[in-house]
Amino acid sequence: MKTRLYFLVCLLSFGFIAVVGKLAYIMLINHQWYTEKAKLQQVKIEEMPVKRGMILDRRGRELAVNLDVESIYCNPAEILDAGNVAETLSNVTGKKNDIILTKLNSNSRFCWVDRKVPHQSAEIVRNLKIKGIGLVPEVKRVYPKGTIASHIIGFVDIDNKGIDGIEQKYDKYLTATSEKIVAYRDAKGNVLFKGDLKEIKGNNVFLTIDEGLQHILENNLDEAVKHWKASYATAIMMDPFTGEIMAMANSPSFDLNNLSAAKPYQRKNRAITDCYEPGSTFKIIVGAAALEEGLVKPNAQYDCSAGYIEVGGRRIKDVHKHGVLTFQEVIQKSSNVGTIKIGISLGRERLYDYAKRFGFGEKTGIDIIGEVSGLVRHPDNWSGMSIGSISIGQEVAATPLQVLRAYSVIANGGLLVKPYLVSEIKTPDGSLVYKAGTEAKRIISEKTANKLNLILTTVTEVGGTAKEASIDGNLVAGKTGTAQKIDPLTKRYSKVNYVSSFVGFVPADKPRLALIVVVHDPRGHIYGGIVAAPVFRKIANDALSYLEVPRDDSIDKGLLVTSTSR
């Protein structure tokens, strides 16, 4: 018994010594290692979610906002039955089983299972309490108006980084720097306490566009594409004095909340990315140059009775035969023959110079990514027929925005303005960060602009090419354009595909808006006066009512322009 007792005492003593030794090793020798390991289990460093600033229209209506959501993650090392868990999560999220299983079997300590899931799905996962599966709060970008202004607003990626439109251009203003917080957890990983929580928000961006005008533009554009069975169409509305874009749209459009359903061609902002030959809308460049240089007067006459003119071995015809036309009538009736004769009198260098003055062949500088410069070749690269072609808007590549800006010069009295889409940027508490201002430079005299303004009003009246653009109660100044497209197979002008356009401003005497409508590949009719002018009228009429612009019923619609100044 003594021997057994002695053995038991020794055994307990050695056990006690071993325990004490182990404790001493942990507490004295390897204390730091165990402290760090405990921190990893008890303390978790989390980044606070950042909410992007909102995007709002000029009246403060929300176009891009944020929604608090949750994302599902996994710690593969803690997953006990990967196959069963993958099947369960697949049923909840709708993601493929094999994709989830691959993540659950990875060697990583952290993997996303599904990002920014609906609240219902998040709640189901939370109630399942699967070991190794967790939820973290995130912020999802939401566009409450869906398709409205989609080409302007743009969109973000899964991490809320702007990748198109205003979202991309002003990303540094819309985002904010995240902050880290400390979360304390118990032995089971449950969060016991988080440090001070605060909401982190980016700056709010206010656009120049008006949601109401944007709605008018998009609805009428969609109807035009449907009616003419067109490939696509573009329209832009701008304040001709400031350069503020009041509305900008392309049809077809797309839903910002359902990007996966949008095809690449639907996401293109053709107002700034696609070039076309402007055709007869370019003729004001010839007209402005001739007036500014003192080469013509509105009553100067041009013999167009032949119905054609030969330039560099190419015969260019008028759509309809005319007799002797005044300078005013050349523009009013859109005579190719008369315009080319004026262009030839200008000469290559002056025609090129005025095209550049009006901003063709260079970017407008609008504050959105993706704009192209178009093309106006230097006279050194012109052929013998170029003087004739360029005078009537061929051999020139322009965007709809460039053409609209050129007509704004006539509307505002001779100033080339810089278009812009963002008017202000404010902090979440309302402090001003940025405010846009008008940038303009004089390129022609006010006298020349006023003469052209008066002439352009005759285009929409009796004898003009765009009677369908006229509006009861207000004078409309503008110009039609009908241009053949290049056939990609033959490399020649197509006999089927055309660009039909109308660009102008209203009221002509005191312009409130400048507007361009461009319809690609219409079927049934091709002329801008038939296809695009009625769309212009509908949009402008609705816009004037929306803006509460009064009618001027004192206007004598039958009065032909005979004066040359206001």
Supply the helix-strand structural class: alpha+beta
Task: Give the percentage of residues in beta strands.
Answer: 15-25%
Average residue pLDDT? 89
What is the architecture of the domain at 211-419 and 436-546 at the second tier of CATH? Answer: 3-Layer(aba) Sandwich
Helical run tally: 19
Main pleated-sheet profile: 7 strands, mixed
CATH superfamily placement of the domain at 211-419 and 436-546: DD-peptidase/beta-lactamase superfamily
Q: Based on CA inertia axes, which overall geometry fits?
A: elongated
Question: What is the number of strand segments?
Answer: 25
The CATH class of the domain at 211-419 and 436-546 is Alpha Beta
The third-level CATH topology of the domain at 211-419 and 436-546 is: Beta-lactamase
Polypeptide structure, described:
The chain has a domain of 320 residues: Beta-lactamase (3-Layer(aba) Sandwich). It is α+β, with helices and mostly antiparallel strands. It starts with a helix and ends in a 20-residue tail after the last helix. Helices cover 34% and strands 24% of the residues. It contains 19 helices and 25 strands.
Summarize the structure.
With 566 residues, the chain is α+β, with helices and mostly antiparallel strands. It has a domain at 211-419 and 436-546: DD-peptidase/beta-lactamase superfamily (Beta-lactamase). The protein is elongated.
Topology:
Blueprint: H1 2-29, H2 31-42, E1 43-47, E2 50-51, E3 55-56, E4 62-74, H3 82-93, H4 97-104, E5 111-117, H5 119-128, E6 133-142, H6 150-153, H7 165-169, H8 171-174, E7 180-185, E8 191-194, E9 200-201, E10 204-207, H9 211-227, E11 232-238, E12 245-251, H10 270-273, H11 283-292, E13 301-303, E14 308-311, E15 314-317, E16 324-326, H12 327-332, H13 336-346, H14 348-357, E17 375-376, H15 386-391, E18 396-397, H16 400-412, E19 415-417, E20 422-426, E21 432-435, E22 440-442, H17 446-457, E23 477-486, E24 493-506, E25 513-520, H18 528-531, H19 533-546
Parallel strand pairs: 2-9, 3-10
Antiparallel strand pairs: 1-7, 3-4, 4-5, 4-6, 7-8, 10-20, 11-12, 11-25, 13-16, 14-15, 17-18, 19-22, 20-21, 23-24, 24-25
